[in-house]
Amino acid sequence: MRDRSLRLLREVRVSVADDSCLFSRNSQSEWSLISQRRGPIINKTLINRQFEMLQNKTAFITGGTKGIGYGIAESLIKEGMKVAITGRNAQSVAKAASALGAPDQVIGIDADVRDLAAQERAIQYVLDQWGQLDVAIANAGVGHFASIEELTSEQWNQVIDVNLTGVFNTTKASLNSLKASKGYLMTIASLAGTNFFARGAAYNASKFGLVGYTQAVMLDVRHHGVKVTTIMPGSVATNFNGRIPSDADAWKIQAEDIGQIVVDLLKMNPRTLPSKVEVRPSMPPKK
């Protein structure tokens, strides 16, 4: 049994060396057996490896100056990744990038997701700086909430242009790089992409569209080795639409929770793809 344990331990170390899988090709039952008998050694090896598997990988996050995008950036940086964040305001981008980390690990790029050429320039800048792109996260989003009687065409167009066309632009700009690295595309949708509500015509349309778009893209590119997931959060404590999070938002999903989900997805065994992830507060207030 001791020889078998050591053999399996070597296989675990070898199997994770190429970043392709956290486990060896041995069965889950064998893994559990060895974990029990050689738990401290195996666990330490895997904990170290879980950090190393993302270290120096690169990520591109739109709308990364605050809220969910910023929370995701923080989580990835803690894993040793290099992160590029974008936003429309150069001053806000520079401030957020400086707060997140050193210039060799974090870069801020002034880029509007509504502009395909701007997204292409941003991706090229990442490639020029770091040589590769492993993860693209289309997070930028806006919301206008009004009855269809009051909703203006300008508000409608802004929501669709940012929340839906903006994701298309990020996808088009990053796809060749993700195919080269066999990377991961994630979109940040919403439970508003499956649950409609009054005064939500523009936002519902953008998020319903985004969920469908992302799943179609997943089917288009998975045979290129590119994984695609849409994350659909419910109530999140963020600065969305000018809100300022407070203690009253403690029951809501926090930005770092979405960041942890992103990390977990990146570390998941590549044979499995959670292509659509719905996320809710576990105990919302009773109405």
Structure description:
The chain is α/β, with parallel strands linked by helices and 287 residues long. The protein has 2 domains: 36 residues, no CATH class; 229 residues, NAD(P)-binding Rossmann-like Domain (Rossmann fold). It has 9 helices and 9 strands. A 7-stranded parallel beta sheet has the order 3-2-1-4-5-6-9, with helices on both faces. Strand 2, helix 5 and strand 3 form a beta-alpha-beta unit. The radius of gyration is 20 Å and the shape is globular. It starts with a helix and ends in an 8-residue tail after the last strand. The relative contact order is 0.12.
Biggest sheet: strands, sense, closure?
7 strands, parallel
The CATH homologous superfamily of the largest domain corresponds to NAD(P)-binding Rossmann-like Domain
CATH uppermost class of the largest domain? Alpha Beta
Regions with little confidence, pLDDT below 50 for 5+ residues: 4-38
The count of strands amounts to 9
**Level-2 CATH architecture of the largest domain:** 3-Layer(aba) Sandwich
What order do the SSEs take from the amino end to the carboxyl end, as H and E? HHHEHEHEHEHEHEEEHE
Q: Write down the overall mean pLDDT.
A: 86
CATH topology annotation of the largest domain: Rossmann fold
Number of helices: 9
Short overview:
The chain has 287 residues and is α/β, with parallel strands linked by helices.
Architecture blueprint of SSEs:
Blueprint: H1 2-15, H2 28-37, H3 39-52, E1 58-61, H4 67-78, E2 82-87, H5 90-100, E3 106-110, H6 116-130, E4 135-138, H7 153-181, E5 184-188, H8 201-221, E6 227-233, E7 236-237, E8 253-254, H9 255-267, E9 276-279
Parallel strand pairs: 1-2, 1-4, 2-3, 4-5, 5-6, 6-9, 7-8
